[in-house]
Amino acid sequence: xxxxxxxxxxxxxxxxxxxxxxxxxxxxxxxxxxxxxxxxxxxxxxxxxxxxxxxxxxxxxxxxxxxxxxxxxxxxxxxxxxxxxxxxxxxxxxxxxxxxxxxxxxxxxxxxxxxxxxxxxxxxxxxxxxxxxxxxxxxxxxxxxxxxxxxxxxxxxxxxxxxxxxxxxxxxxxxxxxxxxxxxxxxxxxxxxxxxxxxxxxxxxxxxxxxxxxxxxxxxxxxxxxxxxxxxxxxxxxxxxxxxxxxxxxxxxxxxxxxxxxxxxxxxxxxxxxxxxxxxxxxxxxxxxxxxxxxxxxxxxxxxxxxxxxxxxxxxxxxxxxxxxxxxxxxxxxxxxxxxxxxxxxxxxxxxxxxxxxxxxxxxxxxxxxxxxxxxxxxxxxxxxxxxxxxxxxxxxxxxxxxxxxxxxxxxxxxxxxxxxxxxxxxxxxxxxxxxxxxxxxxxxxxxxxxxxxxxxxxxxxxxxxxxxxxxxxxxxxxxxxxxxxxxxxxxxxxxxxxxxxxxxxxxxxxxxxxxxxxxxxxxxxxxxxxxxxxxxxxxxxxxxxxxxxxxxxxxxxxxxxxxxxxxxxxxxxxxxxxxxxxxxxxxxxxxxxx
Length: 595
Known about the structure:
By secondary structure, the chain is α/β, with parallel strands linked by helices. The protein folds into 3 domains: 46-212, no CATH class; 219-249 and 454-595, no CATH class; 251-435, no CATH class. It is 31% helix and 15% strand. The chain has helices at 15-20, 154-157, 182-208, 222-233, 250-267, 280-294, 308-314, 317-320, 341-352, 375-397, 403-411, 415-425, 446-449, 459-463, 481-494, 525-535, and strands at 46-47, 63-71, 77-78, 87-88, 92-103, 110-120, 122-123, 126-131, 160-164, 214-220, 240-244, 467-473, 503-508, 542-545, 568-571, 578-580, 592-594.
């Protein structure tokens, strides 16, 4: 196998290359090693002042209040597990509004930022901005989701929570065509959070007679990207940042998905069904080979690869998985016994990530992990390539948008066909640089409006006592955990090796995008963040549990049969690994240490 380089030479003149290699950031001044960071005080509770319907009279610039309705306790219930377990949400006020109604001079469409806010009758003094996923466009319930399939949410904990559609409306058919309007692009990227944060705090002051004592922002996927952007752009407004499975380099990762489609096309038996490139039995073959080489690296063969870094050298696809001497048997035999040489090359290229014709690496690598057998990995790697990533790249992220794709969506062409064709023809020499450029209409590039500016310069957050928790699954389909690892390494370097004093990164072995896969994917990262921000209790580990039969968060049907249904493990801050202590029940987290 040809040895690959982690990053091409920085002397190559390429905007895309500089960004891919992490160049252009101004590192913050690291604090002296002995400096004590400020300790923020805990939030204090307060009751709702007056009636809920009175909030319909709330006045804020360029804002129209739509409704204010009291929601009795128990109307909302969190989770429907197997068997059903429902946890009631307390009484609260549900407020809806819209901000900055306008008509676009570019596409003639009507836009506004729609928002929902839920304000508990018994408020804990905290505010939570709920970042939503995908291309947004939907006004989701402001319950305070934060990832990790927890058995509670921010609203149940007593937070005041806001949610939005990020400035465009799916119900009006604006997804993905909102990308034609430059202002809608910016609102989707960071503008909505920037505009709604002061509104939400003003509404809280009206509702409770005081501003929030502590403010948090969090979410999963694109919602986690919102949180990471806020850590850089709004670090004076938020005390706690929570990012679960973040796509903070979302334009790059979406383009990488198109590269993946191009690799699968080379070996698929049916290019309209890319799953034929790498079938379930073939993925199981690779997963078993990974486990055979890497499972015991952490001190215990338990079906989990905790030592992700060690596995990079222990496992080799070309050496450790048999190569078919004739035709593939994976499409017809279960279990599969081999991969073709062409399959191995395509899989290896996918894990390495996209390159242009000069061999310059344009996104991050991905680690081999047995979670590739998961259904969410399958969904993102084979079917979401066209229906999610192609529209995002072609309409929202390229400047200007791809005319053929835009026309297809406007005229109601078959979406599966036009997005697949776009993915297959996407050119990494010609099209990929359009993620980084501007023109007279699109004055901000996708890499400007979607990603954190200077993502390793979080000095403001750090120096005011703010904290950040980032969690990522090792088998995340769309977003590479290595991209997040590379960011954290750079953050640590720019903080004199002491980033863990205010920011920590945790990896979840086996977990797919945000949840599922053979993983302990249930954890309460928001509570860990509260304890760190307000009480100074640094999360040296976060308890994670498997979701077997009877779990209130819903059963994860992808758990191996030999796992306890309530297996627990510590999630360890990078670069530590959860290692078995050598004695005690292997299903219990207390018998593992982060080291």
